Amino acid sequence: MRLSNLHLLLICVVSEFLGVNIFLKGFFPVKKAVEGYATFHYLPNEPYGSATTDEGFASDNEPDIGIAPVRPVFGRLVVVLIDALRADFVFGERNHDHMPYTRALLSRGATRSFLARAHPPTVTMPRIKALTSGTIPGFIDIVLNFDSVALAEDNLISQMHRQGRQLFFYGDDTWMKLFPGHFADADGTTSFFVTDYTEVDNNVTRHVRPALSNPHWDALILHYLGLDHIGHLGGPTSPLVHPKLQEMDAIIQTIHEAVTEQDKSLVLPTLIMLCGDHGMSDAGSHGGASNSETITPIVFISSAFKQVEGAVRPHPDEVYQIDVAPTLSLLMGLPVPQNSLGVAIPMMLEDNLSARQHLRALQLNSHQLSQVLKQNVDSFETDEGYVAYQRAVRFHSTWLSHTATSSSIDSQVISRKAMMQYIKSMRLMTDKVASSLARYDLHAMGIGLVLMWLVLCLLGYGISSLTSPTDVTSDLKLSILLLSGCCLATGITHVTLCTASGGATSEMLCAPSDEARVWSVMLVLLSGSLAAILLSALTQVGRLQQFFLSFSHISRFETFVLVGTISHTLSLASSSFVEEEHQTWYFLTLTVTLATFIHATASVIGHSSDKMATKVAIATATALVISRLLRAWNQTGIKWADQPDIGDWFVRPENKVSLSFVTALSFVIIYITRCFMRPNYKLLAALFGAYLYRYATGSLNLPIPFPSSQKGIHEAWVVYSLVFISLTHFVMRYTRCLYSLRSMSKGECINGPESDLLTTKPKNQVPPTLGHILEELCDIHIMLMALLLRPHNSCIIAMSVLLQHCIVGMVLPWLQMRLWAVTLVHIWMGQAAFFAQGNSNSIATVDISAGYIGMSSYIHAIAGLLTAISTYAGPILWLVRLLIYITEHHHNSFLSAIEVSYTLAISRALPLAIYTVLVTLQRYHLFVWSVFSPKLLYQTMNTCIVSGGMMFLLVHCGIVRWSMHDKHR
Q1: What's the CA gap between 694 and 700, in Å, rounded?
Q2: 144 and 199: one domain?
Q3: How confident is the model at residue 62 (pLDDT cuts 50, 70, 90)?
């Protein structure tokens, strides 16, 4: 039985994706909410008298509807949520003029202000969940953020709605998706259309005065997006930030003055809460775990607060964002959401409640947390937090029993002890439950790891046997026996793990559901089949020995490329190396370029007549200069991300003219360099259209006035149209060339190194080569890069094009490295380009604004595609160049494609297999969510990009082979 190398490769690719998918499902389980809503039906008694049990609270089996909750302090609530509101925008000494009215309220003690720390990921949807439900969303919510669905967990909004209160909402439509049917009046705006920072807020503000004048509202929620959009476009130092914050300050003033006047005729006052859902990184994005992203301000404003004159506290008390839900619930007379992990903010309770009501509020909050503890921790009775809770109840009972007879001093001491014990117990219970929520499906993760390691081993065997088909085994009966044995062994292992007593049961693979059974059968058969193929392959010892012996004859450059690739993979074991991964790629690419320069220079000195070595020396010297500029253009990573760089200088408003000049110069360099490959006037038009788009959006200048559309939508669509026309033209030329090959008209279309640029025919008589035609793919991608990347990164495109001309056009042919080494060099260059754009292993550096260029409305699929193209523009550019290189420099392109595809597959399978093991071992590491988990998502996405390029390469070379009637394997 023989298995072709192509079939083995395809099996490995499919298995790799299944393995990664299973591992991610086990590592990022979607948290299932406990259904239902908290009520007042099962509240505990105050801990005194005969109504209490030994634990100090009413039995859960004895409902007591007459037990009163905490008396409400506020009758109405106004939430002003300013997306991406950094703490220093409100409290910072250098930003005191950003929000003068709010600062005045802070100065005269008319507010209660705090710093709220959010749990990663710092994106909108998980943060709204945290604010309203008091729960800690999972890391995978960063993906679900782009497709929000109704919130099933108990939450503050649903509690108000269930009590018949009237809720008005205006702003980010994520709220309307999370709470459908909850708002009596609502008007939503999309949070993803980041190029708009004016209308998106005006659409909210126009509802403020009409809503305030409506006497029937109980809660008014305003979610402003403009500041977040400005951050994505220009960062926290953008000149647009100051006027936007002053605009927000004026809205706060309008609301405060209106409700203060209305409170005079109301029984209960109104509470205004100014807050942010997350902060903003120094680069202007969010999603990571830095202080600027996780710490946001919370300012409570009310006429009920006793004003205390004094300066603004430079460091307000720090609370957790999840503490908002229980705080508002208790102050507004609502049940605390049953899954909440928040602790009511002590200052807010102390300032607004009597001592008895304060203790009652802490008791209810502690009781609710104890119920969550019971659901998530098996031995909760001995837990330190639960023991502290019982102790607090006893202090509380003592205070209630003796408050009438004891002195006021004794009463205050006992009540203070009870309060401190309640707060201590709640923090301990919250920490315990939060740590228990990170429940990994180790069974699913293990299956994923097994699949990925089997794939890695099979890919290693496959690349060692490229010259002949893979011999699985020569005996069909033996093949069936081996396959059956492996599947049986895998199945027995799976069933044993699922039924083992005391073992963690996999909800994905062991649950009594049809979906779990299908997954189990499929994975057992797949892993058993892969194991059978691998065991059969291990019998080919001679072939493996020959393969490994071939590495004893590789050149020094090839050795460095191989060792560098393996070293990079091993470096991922360190969180610091993950955070600063760009340094590794810069070092590797610069080192191999410098070594080539030294080698070429030595050849020139030794053989002065070696013209090719002279050209290579000049090319590598140019490449070194370009690489150094690329490295300095955008600071990334963690340690030096806030350091000034070239890109930061160009994006300053006062340097707009310089940015315009550099962008125009970059586009000229791109076009001239591309003309060496092939002139393309559509590329020239697209570059001009991209410049006009940035001019229309106000990012660039033109020496003369030029009419432009609103938000540059028309200009962007001109570029998209040119991309579509170029793609159509490419398909037509490609088809004609293949037809020429099919009809064996040798001279009409050449596939190989005999480039038309080397012929002596006049230009208009030269037949196109496949490599020449594929250059149009490169032009198409450059068109998209010019449009999607930010203006200051236009130089990145120009330098990347020049670098390709130097490295691929001159250096690689001169070095004469093997194809696998050439492939790895392309991968290195692509990864270096990825980080040179300003990307990192933090979600915060993803530029989602690229997904909405030219869009007048949010379309999920298109926005995702454009964002992916923008983020991975550098790696894609080098993958396209690799495809062209193979087509132009290798006669037997299909065999070359197989070798390149195996190399690409191994380049992704190796780091994935090793990194997933490291992540599994480090799953309780301090930085697992801030460092290791984002990198895992980047690894997965990078694998998708490389696999897409690999499949395109195989399809292209397969079609060429079929067209030429190539019989070789």
Answers
A1: 6
A2: yes
A3: very low
Kindly state whether residue 347 falls inside one of the protein's structural domains. no
Q: Would 430 be classed as within a structural domain?
A: yes
Q: Give yes or no: residues 41 and 14 share one domain.
A: no
Q: Give the pLDDT confidence of 812-845 residue by residue, as tens digits.
A: 888 888 888 999 999 999 999 999 998 888 887 8
Query: Helix or strand or coil: residue 106?
Result: helix
Residues 490 and 401 in one domain: no
Residue 344 is assigned to a structural domain of this protein: no
Total number of domains in the chain: 4
Tell me, letter by letter, the H, E, C secondary structure of 491-551. HHHHHHHHHCCCCCCCCCCCCCCHHHHHHHHHHHHHHHHHHHHHHHHCCCHHHHHHHHHHH
| Residue whose tokens read 């507004």 | 332
**CA-to-CA dists, residue 44 to 70, 253, 540, 750, angstroms:** 12, 41, 72, 85
Quick check: 884 and 774 in contact, CB under 8 A?
yes
**Could you identify the residue written with the tokens 């011999």?**
471
Residues present in the chain in total: 969
Q: How would you write 206-275 as a 3-class SS string?
A: CCHHHHHHCCCCCEEEEEECHHHHHHHHHCCCCCCHHHHHHHHHHHHHHHHHHHHHHHCCCCCCEEEEEE
Same domain, residue pair 96 and 165: yes
> Which domain does 65 fall in, by range?
32-70+353-437
- Residue 268's nearest CA partner among 241, 236, 302 is 302
Contact 130, 137 (CB under 8 A): yes
> What is the C-alpha to C-alpha distance for residues 220 and 210, in angstroms, rounded to an integer?
11
Domain identity same for 418 and 449: no
Query: Could you report the per-residue pLDDT of 168-202, keeping only the tens digit for each?
Result: 999 988 898 889 999 999 998 765 555 567 888 99
| Domain end call among 390, 422, 437 | 437
Q: How far is CA 77 from CA 269, 316, 485, in A?
A: 9, 22, 66
Rounded Cα gap, residues 581 and 584, in angstroms = 5
In a domain, 10, yes or no: yes
> What percent of the residues of the chain are helix, what percent strand, and what percent coil, each to the nearest 5?
65, 5, 30
- 123 vs 137, 194, 291, 424, CA distance in Å? 11, 14, 14, 29
**Location of structure tokens 């086990």:** 26
Strands 167-172 and 318-320: unpaired
207 and 294 housed in the same domain: yes
Cα 376-120-146 angle, rounded to 5 deg: 100
Cα(195)–Cα(830) distance, integer angstroms? 28
246 and 187 in a single domain? The answer is yes
pLDDT in tens, 719-739: 999 999 999 998 988 888 777
Q: What is the pLDDT of residue 767?
A: 44
Residues 21 and 130 in one domain: no
User: How many of the other CB atoms lie within 10 Å of CB of 131?
Assistant: 26
User: 296 and 120 in contact (C-beta within 8 Å)?
Assistant: no
The burial class, CB within 10 Å (0-12 / 13-18 / 19+), for 620 is buried
SS3 for 717-773, per residue?
Answer: HHHHHHHHHHHHHHHHHHHHHHHHHHCCCCCCCECCCCCHHHCCCCHHHCCCEHHHH
Q: Chain centroid to CA 95: how far?
A: 30
CA angle 178, 180, 185 (to 5 degrees): 115
**Tokens standing for residue 484:** 């059956």
Locate 19 and state its tokens.
């393995």
Residue 225 tokens, joined:
């997006």
- Contact (Cβ atoms closer than 8 angstroms) between residue 325 and residue 156: yes
Task: Tell how strand 270-275 and strand 185-189 pair up.
Answer: unpaired
